[in-house]
């Protein structure tokens, strides 16, 4: 069998070389051509060459002008800070890129002049208070003889919030938080990750100072509360956000936890039908319950019943029983899709990237000293906030 001799020009050696295998030549020539073609396509995509005749070379995509400005109908990224924060602490929050803050409130009843003083202090540093927590309301939750007095104080606080332009008031309705379920495990780089396991502590007895409460008792007490305060909140133009049980276990120290399932969350907004009667959507808790966070988000968002958002990620080992809080980028929740859905729904209130993981640097700068402006877990908070902001900018660039 005759072997064909083929001359091939060698670019590297600047001369002809002899090749005696036709197949080898064809194979290598095809690779060279393919390489040249791919390089050309890559170059067109990279430079955005609109004159390219290759239909796949340039995608039709929206070009967004940077920097991207805050949209009135998009989530407002916010950070948590003490109501007594000093100027150094305020600047540290502002330096993250946050324009909005959330905080625990004063003792009720809130007074207009006191709220004005707080809000104006933060405003001077470029920070707007977007949500304030009403604090513990034990008489209302337990249904004591003092609950009407407590509810009257909350009603007065809602009008004070309205007077100073505070849009959202958050509250909890849990008999007792099962903190005994928490423990720590080692994560990447040796960090401590907070985890929860219900099984070892599910049979803890009631606390003598609290006692036992059935689900029926608590639903009655919540209904009484909402029927008294939501009409006032609606009149005042303020939205209330119920933060669900976390951890979302069924029983804590012998008492029911009535906001620990998707069904419970639905029932809350059905008790009084009003945009002022909403929830704090926590995608972490939604996942901890074994639910699809996006399904829950669409359910409440489409009904305009999400009045505050907590943004974090988890890995669930057993729904409602055992889970681990992890970095934003390593959990089960698609955080980009959550941000995309919130934007699509035109959710416009606060989004708090919460539960920062304490990094080694934070351990070297523990606590916070009033005169030095330290903020506990500051680098962990910066990580959370930056991740959330990247997700938001990616969505707004689509």
Strand content: 15-25%
Overall tally of structural domains: 2
Number of helices: 12
By CATH's scheme, which homologous superfamily of the largest domain applies?
Divalent-metal-dependent TIM barrel enzymes
Share of helix among residues?
25-40%
Radius of gyration: 28 Å
Which residues form runs of ≥5 with pLDDT under 50? Answer: 1-52
Q: Sum up the overall morphology in one term.
A: globular
Order of helices and strands: EEHEHEHEHHEEEHEEEHEHHEEEHEHH
CATH topology of the largest domain: TIM Barrel
First-residue to last-residue Cα separation:
61 Å
CATH architecture of the largest domain: Alpha-Beta Barrel
Number of strands: 16
Look at the helices and sheets and give the structural class: alpha/beta
**Spatial strand arrangement across the major sheet:** 3-4-5-6-9-12-13-16
Write a structural description.
35% of the residues are buried. Helices cover 38% and strands 19% of the residues. A hairpin with a 2-residue loop joins strand 10 (251-252) and strand 11 (255-256). With 398 residues, it is α/β, with parallel strands linked by helices. It is globular, with a radius of gyration of 28 Å. The protein contains 12 helices and 16 strands. It folds into 2 domains: 1-61, no CATH class; 76-396, Divalent-metal-dependent TIM barrel enzymes (TIM Barrel), CATH 3.20.20.
Sequence-ordered SSE layout with sheet pairings:
Elements: E1 6-10, E2 15-19, H1 22-47, E3 76-80, H2 87-96, E4 100-104, H3 112-123, E5 128-133, H4 138-142, H5 147-163, E6 168-172, E7 182-186, E8 192-197, H6 215-236, E9 239-243, E10 251-252, E11 255-256, H7 262-271, E12 277-282, H8 283-288, H9 293-301, E13 306-310, E14 313-318, E15 322-326, H10 335-344, E16 350-352, H11 360-364, H12 378-396
Parallel strand pairs: 3-4, 3-16, 4-5, 5-6, 6-9, 9-12, 12-13, 13-16
Antiparallel strand pairs: 1-2, 7-8, 8-15, 10-11, 14-15
């Amino acid at each position: 069998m005759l072997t064909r001799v083929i001359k091939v020009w060698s670019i590297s050696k600047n001369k002809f070389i002899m090749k005696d295998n036709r197949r080898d030549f064809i194979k290598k020539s095809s690779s060279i051509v393919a390489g040249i073609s791919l390089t050309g396509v890559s170059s067109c995509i990279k430079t955005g060459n609109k004159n390219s005749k290759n239909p796949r070379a340039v995608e039709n995509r929206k070009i967004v002008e940077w920097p991207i400005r805050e949209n009135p109908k998009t989530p407002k990224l916010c950070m948590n800070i003490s109501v007594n924060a000093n100027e150094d602490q305020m600047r540290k929050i502002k330096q993250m890129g946050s324009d909005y803050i959330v905080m625990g409130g004063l003792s009720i009843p809130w007074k207009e002049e006191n709220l004005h003083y707080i809000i104006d202090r933060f405003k001077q540093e470029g920070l707007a208070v977007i949500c304030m927590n009403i604090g513990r309301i034990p008489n209302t939750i337990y249904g004591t003889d003092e609950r009407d007095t407590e509810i009257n104080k909350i009603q007065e606080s809602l009008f004070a919030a309205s007077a100073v332009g505070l849009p959202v008031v958050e509250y909890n309705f849990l008999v007792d938080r099962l903190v005994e379920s928490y423990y720590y495990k080692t994560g990447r780089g040796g960090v401590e990750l907070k985890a929860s396991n219900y099984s070892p502590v599910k049979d803890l007895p009631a606390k003598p100072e609290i006692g036992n409460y059935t689900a029926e008792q608590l639903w009655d007490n919540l209904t009484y509360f909402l029927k008294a305060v939501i009409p006032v909140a609606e009149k005042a133009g303020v939205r209330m956000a119920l933060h669900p049980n976390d951890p979302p276990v069924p029983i804590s120290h012998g008492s029911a936890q009535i906001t620990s399932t998707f069904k419970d969350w639905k029932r809350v907004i059905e008790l009084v039908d009003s945009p002022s009667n909403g929830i704090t959507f926590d995608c972490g808790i939604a996942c901890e319950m074994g639910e699809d966070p996006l399904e829950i988000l669409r359910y409440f968002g489409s009904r305009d019943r999400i009045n505050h958002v907590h943004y974090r990620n988890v890995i669930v080992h057993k729904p409602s029983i055992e889970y681990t809080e992890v970095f934003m980028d390593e959990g089960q929740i698609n955080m980009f899709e959550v941000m995309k859905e919130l934007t699509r729904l035109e959710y416009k209130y606060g989004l708090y990237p919460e539960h920062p993981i304490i990094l080694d640097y934070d351990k070297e700068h523990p606590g916070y000293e009033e005169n030095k402006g330290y903020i506990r877990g500051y680098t962990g908070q910066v990580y959370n906030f930056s991740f959330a902001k990247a997700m938001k900018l990616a969505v707004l660039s689509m």
